[in-house]
């Protein structure tokens, strides 16, 4: 860590050991839910007494859980479809502004990420209650779009800051219409970051608990909402099944992003 | 006629062109600003209007008249004081844990060659995107009376009876540290990356010991990042809901849980709003403090 000092093998090895233990502390606990989901027991026993798929069967047979899965999937897809385009527009627009305006605009756009989500949840609940939209998919997606926008904005701003926009001007001066310049010159070159921001927006919505708890309800109750309620009332391995599903989706998203990122670094 | 006065007509054309260019530039800025409008509209609708609404609602008493009774109740009630103390305790404990674990770990990653440091960084960032709820549940599985941690402790003969590890402050702080550590490490690592390694080599060549260099040269240079990370962790800890609700098991009552309860159990919008306003004010003040601390530390470094 400190250049210019001689190596001390014993302490170096100790440091590696501690660092690896810490990585295990960070990464491993989440994966405990995978073996739990294959348990045959009614309780949270670890290691599971024997393996079975009965809780997966239970999950698929349960109307509450499948409905929640459908609601989560819908909310996640709509959130991605809305937040990615407007996030790209905002990142593009903010880049051309003068420094002062850019700071102001980006500060406002990342606001949902720094304000406690409970405040967004209850504030939005009050507003939606006023216009009779509590429990609707529109209200839920609105809240999730607000939470996904900072992610999309930050990823796309980083991508655009590396991008040479004289290419767009060149395309335009050579006679391309603005949409041709965008769809055939600009967007294909930032397809990696667009995919990343889309996946992250989807995962943001999929994992979100607090806004969903207040805004979604009835048929639109999302997986995390149902799971949170179940965690308070009765804990059975169905929750491990849901956790495994959420974990797999998030891991796939991160792996795809990392591989895209690694490929981009190589070229 | 034109040929007789070429300079005049040229200058008119130039001035006209200049005006057009200025107008074009202004138009372009307006168009750029228009591109950010959809996002700004969503933020206004989901954050600004709701927050203003909280201020508005908090200023009305249960009888529907404008009053400060919601705030008065918070100031008077001992139960509210306890909630604020618990929230700050849990937040401070999380910050302490993050600093104690995160600073050495970030120093370690900072010292690795690039390829290896990327692997460690990925390991830090991977859990960042797994659900809060899944992680709270996972800790519950690990820490419960019949969980793995207790089995291992009893198997090793360290304890005879299972320890009560879940549903208390300890479990809450552990779960929150697990979530906040990546968020803490990133700014700290950023600050460490910016340290001029020539300074470290200079200290070494002038005979400073390794630990002296680390304490007196390296850490002070990383201080702005550490302060920024610590304040960020503290602010975010104030707003936690899911982790204390699950891992605290009702024994850890923080502000956001009280807000949720005022709303869902008692339908007391005024009380929930007043607490929300206080939480918002704390958050804003701490971010302002963070900004101030950054400026002081950075300006001290330059001088």
Distance between the termini of chain B: 66 Å
What is the CATH architecture assignment of the largest domain in chain B?
Orthogonal Bundle
- What form of chain A results from the Cα inertia axes? globular
The residue fraction in helices of chain A comes out at: over 70%
> Whole-number average pLDDT of chain B?
85
End-to-end C-alpha gap of chain A: 30 Å
The residue-averaged pLDDT of chain A reads: 87
- Given this structure, which CATH class of the largest domain in chain B is correct? Mainly Alpha
Radius of gyration of chain B: 28 Å
Order of helices and strands of chain A: HHHHHHHHHHHHHH
The CATH homologous superfamily of one domain in chain A corresponds to: MetI-like
CATH topology description of the largest domain in chain B: MetI-like fold
Helicity level of chain B, as a percent range?
A: over 70%
Structural class of chain A: mainly alpha
- The general outline of chain B is flat
Spans of chain A with pLDDT under 50 lasting ≥5 residues? none
According to CATH, what is the topology of one domain in chain A?
MetI-like fold
General description of the model:
Chain B: It is found in: Cell membrane. Chain B: This is ABC transporter permease. Chain B: Keywords: Cell membrane, Membrane, Transmembrane, Transmembrane helix, Transport. Chain B: It comes from Mesorhizobium qingshengii. The complex is a heterodimer of chains A (267) and B (303). Chain A is mainly alpha-helical and 267 residues long. Chain A has a domain at 62-233: MetI-like fold. Helices cover 78% and strands 0% of the residues of chain A. Chain A has helices at residues 9-31, 33-37, 54-61, 63-96, 99-109, 111-114, 117-130, 137-161, 166-173, 178-189, 191-207, 210-215, 223-233, 238-266. In chain A, α4 packs across α13 (223-233), α9 runs antiparallel to α10 and α11 (191-207) packs antiparallel against α14. Chain A starts with 8 loop residues before the first helix and ends with a helix. Chain B is built from twelve helices and no strands. Residues 1-6 of chain B have low confidence and may be disordered. Chain B has two domains: 1-58; 69-302, MetI-like (MetI-like fold). In chain B, α7 (169-193) packs across α9. Chain B is flat. Chain B is mainly alpha-helical and 303 residues long. At the A-B interface, α1, α4, α5, α6 and α7 of A face α1, α3, α4, α5 and α7 of B.
